[in-house]
Write a structure and sequence with these properties.
The chain is α/β, with parallel strands linked by helices. It is built from 21 helices and 24 strands. Strands 10, 11, 12, 14, 15, 18 and 19 form a 7-stranded mixed β-sheet that branches. Strands 1, 2, 3, 4, 5 and 6 form a 6-stranded parallel β-sheet that branches. Keywords: Amino-acid biosynthesis, FAD, Flavoprotein, FMN, Methionine biosynthesis, NADP, Oxidoreductase, S-adenosyl-L-methionine. It holds the Pfam family Flavodoxin_1. Its cofactor is FAD; FMN. One of its GO terms (molecular function) is FMN binding.
């Protein structure tokens, strides 16, 4: 970008599942309203920008995935800037701002953003605006919205400084023909891309009828007995019900959707075309790992991969494709008024008049697929609608009260209500449409705002040395209890898997590979996950500590199966000490893999098995959770990790367990090595850097 283009800046995003891209696009759309021109690109598209020659401000929006890893789209960029041969002034010309997305349920919060930020600083780049760290665990918008709001003033100041700096080196009144043309081009872009103001005062645009409805809502903040009414998804209470609202701008539409009677190009909505990188495999068995009276059931799933070239290591994860519930697709079709068009083929193209920069037809939607196929396999219809989607629904809502409530939910003033009634309750589009009866969005709006249906990841609970041609997964069916906002339902993938294996599911105590599963025709599509570091050490003599309560023990079963086979085949080799810390609720109900683990102890594969039971009657001194077990063995743990260069693995729940285990590790180091907490935290960070503290966790 030439330095003469004084109001133009670049937005770069690195996104795994679309969050960072969506926020970057929102910044791009708002830019024109504030007098700027924004160019936008995925950070992976290096051919579309050149940071080495970039003279305008740059805004980065990047997410973090896995165990603090960059998203796939940012891997190449991060590797590039980490090149140690780059001089310390390589980006001394660069002025940037960075918005990092993460989740505090995971240990390496916003790690990708922090990595890029610190490395750019090392290479001489300068901040023009403070870095933002948005937490998906509490709600991204809590940080994102004010960060974007403050960005515009920071850009204005930056451009003013750049303009003053440029003028010092230019004779006043010497304006070249080229600069005049550039300014004209900027103004033309601004004029063509201008859209409505980002924040509208609702009182400036509401009708007299809307005012009257608001007044009625305020006067009815108590029930017939005089008791105060509580806020709900469809109803607000003062002061929000009487407030002026800052409502976001309407997101620009960018898709034209046409439904035609021409035949669709797939077998049926229950069968997915084989996607690139995926393998189609059959289920060869399934069994209960827990008793019927367990609080939460665990299922072992065995898949037959003997006909596929799919090598894997214990600890590898696999992406499993699942489909949306037929009943939910059916209801969504009915609610959209498209029930009779389910078999028509869908044709998508960009609107010629769209003001959305970088708009593209979604690549994950096959051309000429049927409408039913699209809603079944392509879109995440269970996803929680973002505020931009709620804002878009406002304009397709007829009832003035419902319209007002949707405006509240997407407004700055209604953020608490949005979090309480939409985000925290895992509301989906269908739930919103059931609650707001007069809302009838077009299909194009639904496709524009619903994200791609993502595969679900499961860790391998087996070793191919022990089970050649097979791979095992363990899962528990996720339950979402009924609430005012939505009916009871099960997790999309776990419920789908459970439904399909229920007919061949073996009872507790039986093996998954049973005769009655032989003719099972249920197929899964799997894709091995790349860049996985959650593996056994390359040096088998290194000791390992495994922490995996509940179904978190799954990958460690694979580790131990692998280690057992290696010990049988390589009897002269030296193998390191093995520790496993496992926890469950009840000893006799949900101690999964108990018999196999005890056999590993008997044959010497597992040297130390430490177990806690959180719901059993304890005498007060017994450990209740895995972190308590670790603390009991603090001396051994510190010796293994820092004297013997051992490896520390954690698998399971990120929200509570992983945090508690991390805190316990810091406490152990502090106590045993007589260090202060800061030094202990640095030692834990060093373990992570050396890839000797590895996590496979989920929220």
């Amino acid at each position: 970008m030439p330095c003469g283009v004084a109001s133009q800046f670049l937005i770069l995003y690195g996104s795994q599942r679309g969050q960072a891209q969506s926020i970057a696009e929102e910044i791009c759309e708002q830019a024109a309203e504030h007098g700027f021109i924004a160019d936008i690109s995925c950070v992976s598209k290096g051919e579309k920008y050149n940071l080495e020659r970039e003279r305008g401000p740059v805004v980065f929006v990047v997410s973090t995935t896995g165990d603090g890893e960059p998203p796939d789209t940012a891997l190449k960029f991060v590797k590039k800037i980490k090149n140690k041969s780059l001089p310390c002034d390589h980006y001394s010309h660069l002025h940037y701002a960075l918005l990092a997305l993460g989740d505090t349920n995971y240990a390496n919060f916003c790690n990708c953003g922090k990595t890029i930020d610190s490395r750019l600083q090392e290479l001489g780049a300068k901040h023009f605006y403070a870095t933002g760290h948005a937490d998906d665990g509490t709600g991204l918008e809590i940080v994102v919205d004010p960060w974007i709001e403050g960005l515009w003033e920071a850009l204005k100041k930056t451009f003013a400084k750049m303009s003053a700096s440029n003028q010092e080196g230019t004779n006043q009144g010497e304006v070249t023909k080229k600069s005049i043309q550039q300014e004209a081009q900027i103004q033309e872009k601004l004029d063509s891309s201008a859209i409505s103001l980002s924040l509208l005062k609702l009182t400036d645009v509401e009708t007299e009828k809307g005012k009257a409805e608001t007044s009625v809502l305020e006067s009815k903040s108590t029930d017939i007995l005089g008791a105060p009414l509580e806020a709900s998804l469809i109803r607000s209470v003062p002061p929000l019900s009487g407030s002026s609202l800052n409502v976001p701008a309407l997101p620009p539409s960018y898709l034209d959707v046409c439904l035609e009677d021409s035949p669709a190009e797939e077998v049926g909505c229950t069968h997915l075309r084989l996607l690139e990188g995926f393998y189609e495999v059959a289920v060869s068995g399934a069994a209960h790992l827990t008793r019927d009276d367990a609080v939460k059931s665990a299922i072992l799933l065995e898949l037959d991969i003997s006909d596929q070239d799919m090598p894997y290591q214990p600890g590898d994860a696999f992406d499993v494709l699942c489909l949306n519930r037929a009943s939910e697709v059916e209801e969504l079709l009915r609610r959209l008024g498209l029930k009779d068009q389910r078999s028509q083929s869908v044709h998508l193209q960009l609107r010629k008049d769209t003001k959305k920069k970088g708009a593209q037809v979604p690549s994950y939607i096959p051309q000429k697929c049927s409408l039913e196929y699209l809603l079944t396999w392509c879109l995440e219809i269970r996803s929680t609608p973002k505020k931009a989607f709620v804002r878009a629904l406002v304009d397709w809502t007829q009832d003035s009260r419902e319209k007002r409530r949707l405006q509240e939910l997407c407004s700055r003033e209604g953020s608490a209500d949005y979090n309480r009634f939409v985000r925290d309750t895992n509301l989906c589009l269908l739930d919103l449409l059931q609650a707001f009866k007069s809302c009838s969005p077009p299909l194009s709006l639904v496709i524009e705002h619903l994200p791609k249906l993502q595969p679900r990841a499961y860790s391998a609970a087996s070793s191919s040395l022990r089970h050649p041609g097979k791979v095992h997964f363990v899962f528990s069916v996720v339950d979402f209890p009924a609430c005012v906002e939505h009916p009871e339902r099960t997790g999309l993938c776990t419920g789908w898997l459970m439904h399909h294996v229920s007919a061949i599911l073996q009872p507790y105590g039986k093996t998954a590979s049973a005769e009655k599963t032989a003719d099972l025709s249920f197929q899964n599509q799997l894709e091995p996950r790349v860049s996985n570091t959650f593996h056994l050490p390359s040096d088998p003599s290194a000791p390992i500590v495994m922490v995996g309560p509940g179904t978190g023990v799954a990958p460690f079963i694979g580790f131990l199966q692998q280690r057992y086979q290696e010990r049988v085949e390589k009897q002269d080799d030296v193998f390191g000490e093995t520790w496993l810390f496992f926890g469950c609720r009840h000893k006799d109900r949900d101690f999964i893999f108990r018999e196999e683990l005890e056999r590993f102890v008997e044959n010497g594969t597992l040297n130390h098995l430490k177990v806690s039971f959180s719901r059993e009657e304890l005498d007060g001194n017994e450990p209740r959770y895995v972190q308590h077990l670790l603390l009991l063995h603090a001396k051994n743990m510190v010796h293994v990790l820092f004297k013997e260069n051992g490896y520390f693995y954690v698998c399971g729940d990120a929200k509570n367990m992983a945090k508690d285990v991390n805190d316990a590790l810091i406490e152990m180091i502090t106590k045993e090595l007589q260090l202060d907490k800061l030094e202990s935290m640095k030692m834990v960070a060093k373990l992570r850097e050396e890839k000797r503290y590895l996590q496979d966790i989920w929220s």
